[in-house]
From TrEMBL:
InterPro entries: DUF4386. This is DUF4386 domain-containing protein. Pfam families: DUF4386. Keywords: Membrane, Transmembrane, Transmembrane helix. The keyword Transmembrane helix applies. It comes from the Bacteria. It comes from Kribbella pittospori. The chain crosses the membrane at residues 33-57, 77-98, 118-138, 166-186, 193-214, 220-240. Residues 1-20 are annotated as: Disordered.
Length: 266
């Protein structure tokens, strides 16, 4: 039998201590990627649901044509409603992810921005419910027999109008959300300040559309159709620069007294 004698002069090499900032970097990186991908996916789904389906099947000022088109494409109309519900789910995901991305800048404002997006999602859900009422009304033979075709068509158009009115009102909250996100992006140091400015402009566009729909006596032109660029660029930046965002944000989070990249350099 032989015994092994440990040499006291041989010591095991010490492993380097783990970087405490790594878990935060991974968390923020995942949040950045999640927010970016969800925003890009949301753009596609929302365009299909609202512009292709709802706007495509609704003829303003012509209840008869609108009713005929919806009844002839009930499956497509329901698919459009479903896609808008998916948008709500993605909105909830984005609210959480953007909170994580911008919480190192200001946790309170980031939480407020997330809350505004969540409340907006609830308002949007109520708006979508009006579309469910429309398809149910048009598919009910009893309602058509009791109310008459003209009355059913009129109520269907009122349901579509209610969907748009409620959505427009909710967009004021969405605009406020983008104003806060734009401010946080401008202050962050890991999002270009120009992008922060574009997000503020997008937020003002949505807020103006919401107020304009209420205050204007004539049909309101959508300003947000021309000011949405900041949202799209933010989504791309969050995906492409996720690693750098995570590293800088984690460093900022690890320095409680620093609130911008310039503070870290000082």
């Amino acid at each position: 039998m032989t015994s092994r004698i440990q040499n006291p002069h041989l010591q095991r090499p010490h492993s380097a201590p783990p970087d405490p900032a790594l878990p935060a970097q991974w968390s923020i990186r995942r949040a950045s990627l999640t927010a970016g991908v969800a925003l890009l996916l949301m753009s596609v789904v929302a365009i299909f649901g609202n512009i292709v389906v709802i706007d495509g099947l609704v003829t303003e000022g012509d209840a008869g044509q609108t009713t005929a088109d919806i009844l002839a494409n009930q499956g497509l109309f329901r698919l459009g409603i479903t896609s808008l519900i998916v948008v709500i789910l993605l909105d909830v995901v984005v609210a959480w992810a953007l909170y994580r991305v911008f919480s190192p800048v200001n946790a309170s404002l980031s939480m407020l921005a997330a809350a505004m997006r969540l409340v907006y999602s609830g308002v949007f859900m109520v708006a979508i419910g009006q579309l469910l009422g429309v398809i149910r009304l048009l598919g009910d033979d009893g309602s058509r027999a009791a109310l008459g075709a003209d009355q059913v068509q009129t109520q269907a158009m009122m349901g579509v109008a209610a969907f748009k009115d409620i959505w427009y009102l909710g967009q004021f909250l969405f605009g406020a959300h983008l104003l806060l996100i734009g401010f946080l992006a401008y202050r962050s140091g890991y999002i270009p300040r120009l992008l922060g400015v574009l997000l503020v402009i997008a937020g003002l566009g949505y807020a103006t559309d919401s107020l304009g729909a209420v205050l204007s006596q004539s049909p309101w032109a959508d300003i947000s159709a021309f000011t949405f660029l900041g949202e799209f660029l933010l989504a791309l930046w969050l995906v492409i620069r996720a690693r750098r965002i995570a590293a800088t944000a984690a460093a900022l989070e690890a320095t409680p007294h620093a609130r911008t990249l310039d503070d870290l350099k000082a």
